[in-house]
Amino acid sequence: MKSNEKKTILILIVVSVIIIGVTWHFTRGKNSDGGETGGNPTAGQVGNAANNASKGEYTRVEKDGTVVNTSEKLKTEREDSGFLISNISFEEKNGETILKATLMNKTESVQATFLGDIVLMDKSGNEIGRIPVRVSEMQAGEIRDIEATITESYANAYDFKLEK
Predict the structure, then answer these.
(1) Is the pLDDT of residue 21 over 80?
(2) With respect to CATH, is domain 59-163 assigned 2.60.40?
(3) Please, how many CA atoms are within 13 Å of residue 40, restricted to the half-sphere of its CB?
């Protein structure tokens, strides 16, 4: 092999290594706060709490990556705005935070359709986010399942309230 051929092969190898390194750097997986995932996250990994609200004290991460809220306060059956709210689940999956619950109209009259907010709170009672929800007209005593979704990370909420 001539000296010229050796230099060309060496340059091609160096360029290939650089391209592979740059590609690996940009495709190795980032989480929502821009940090490196560094492997499978667990409920104990908190990171920057302001930017990584989905992981923390009140969550666990399932094998499929779903972040499930574990706060007993959030899951407690409650009466709010004339409704009994029960069967509450709150999780984050595929970039969406979803609250599901069963509503029962506890008033003695028809509740008109309304647009409201699920107000999410931290342990101190401070608001950390809102999820808009639409509740269709409900007759007195009627029971209906609702689902409120937002493309933000709020799975680590401690509690919530329904605001009309």
Answers:
(1) no
(2) yes
(3) 9
